Amino acid sequence: MKKGMVIILENYEMLDEDVQEMEEQDVQEQAIVSDTQDYGGEQIQVLEGLEAVRKRPGMYIGSTGEKGLHHLVYEIVDNSIDETLAGFCKHIDVDILPGNIIKVTDDGRGIPVGIQPKLGIPAVTVVFTVLHAGGKFGGGGYKVSGGLHGVGASVVNALSEWLEVEVCDGENRYYQRFERGKTVDDLAVVGPTSEKGTRVAFKADGEIFESVEYSFEILEKRLREQAFLNAGLQITLNDKRESESRTEVMHYEGGIRSFVGFINKTRGLEALHPDPIYFAGERNGSTAEVALQYTDSYYETLLSFANNIETPEGGTHEDGLKNALRRAINDYGHKQNILKEKDKVSGEDTREGIVCIVSVRLTDAQFEGQTKTKLGNSEIRTLVEQLSYEKISTFLEENPATARIILDKALTASRAREAAKKAREATRRKTGLEGASLPGKLTDCSSKDRMSTELFIVEGDSAGGSAKEGRDANIQAILPLWGKMLNVERARIDKVYGNDKLMPVVTALGCGIGDEFDLSKLRYGKVVIMADADVDGSHIRTLLLTFFFRYMRPLIEHGHVYIAQPPLFKVSRGKKVRYAFDEKQRDAFVKELYPDRTEDTKVPIQRYKGLGEMNPQQLWETTMDPQNRTMLLVEMEDAAAADEIFTVLMGDKVGPRREFIEANAKYVVNLDI
Ligand code: TTJ
Fold first, then answer.
1. Does domain 441-566+616-667 have CATH number 3.30.70.360?
2. Measured from the CB, is residue 109 less than 6 Å from ligand 1?
3. Quick check: CB of 124 below 6 Å from ligand 1?
4. For residue 139, how far is the Cα from the chain centroid?
């Protein structure tokens, strides 16, 4: 029987236990060793563990695309954040070095370098070479932070061309290097030091990742979030790549209170009371923290986290808070006679304009839901609901002026909802039918096979005319839009009903809006926004997308919304015609059609200023023909990011909008507002 190898295979729980146990010499072998199988040498087993990661990286980090690449950094940084949670790390530096090397440095106690008795190698080596060898090495505290997958440093090591670790324990500086997960040298003392901390540098493996180029903005967003969630922790992101030079120091003594302020400021939201309402509590070792503030927005922004991991699907912590807020506001309103006995504001009404962060920490977090980002632990609902009800009630009692503002906001939201309901019913009565009749401007298609049909929402009457003539009448319907459209970011739902620009869209699609939305009633498989590539066109595109995002979100989530891509140039030579979507493509077509062109050869290039300039035949060929066209599918990978885009772009603050466009130029190139 060979010792060691089985430990590697069955080590997970063992390695997650306390250091005291790890340091016990009389390891109970039968608990970890199966003596009937021959597993081969120890080293081979260690490497086999990491080979599995290299064979199926997606299983461990989600993808080998941009997301997976950035995930490597979070996996490493999360270890330093665990040390922060244990109370020993105040600074984390993340450097992006030339060649897209990542270096993470912390001032914690340093990963233990002592020999791990079960494996006979240093604990730090175990951390980087044994799959799932995360967890605690010290007494006290528990591992609570972690990335989406929480797979640990060994996975990063396995997926790196090389990785170097340096540990300072106040006496010695230790160093070890790995290549593609394999140990290059044993851990060695490289000098004396009075410092304490851990430093890890790695280069993601170009054989594994589609690209190894990091985005400062992506790292910044996640690291800033971590700085907000861990009040007092200072995270410095430093871009030292050849072409870049940028440093962002993120340090918030106010923690999630500062997070709320940051969201308001970057989105241009006006707070309705001076400071966020903040409270924190603890029960049976779990903690909960909430910061919230009401703003002039008509939408809610609620971000929730469990163990520093965002939970976009919500869960028990969110439910607890929402229940508490609804109950506390209704109870206070009745007590103060602001609400009549029979009056009740809904949960949704009590959240209009709210910007709120809920952060909980617990052992054994259960992540559920489609994307495993919904918190399932029921004890957390009780903790958050009781804590929030008590604290929000007290706040309202002690701050009557703010309480009045919050109640007025909820009441106005409630009345708008009632008005919207009446408007909806009135529309129904007027038409005398359940489904309202189709809008007069709609030119419908003949096919009744809904999933194969397409609705083109076209800007302007003349383009609408061309589209009508050029379309495939069997599957393509045309709805022209014109004039100034309602910006739903600055209006409530009651204004949407009866709006002469938006209602034709609603009735043409047939699936209702808001709570009423029913995807199964959708009358077309694809909804295509077709507008010019100019400022007006991009404005109308953004307004429509904002509308779909706020009132018909499943339409986007299920991939029904597209943006048509009309060409900008036509290059021709005799009968040969090429359509180009940008300058680069135009120049390439010129080269293709006129290979031996000299300076004074005249090349017929037409620049389309708008859809209206194309004749029906051209519009069909370039933009509408399913066999030829290019269309952009509108995806909503990250609802929070989309929320931010719309709030900023369609809000009424110019400052944040300009800053946003400057910072995100590549995302909003076509939204040149
Ligand atoms: C564990 O308990 C004993 C003292 O040290 C604790 C520890 O492991 N601290 C620690 C780990 N601080 N920083 C790390 C760490 C930092 C990076 C950048 C990467 C990794 C894998 C761990």
1. no
2. yes
3. no
4. 35
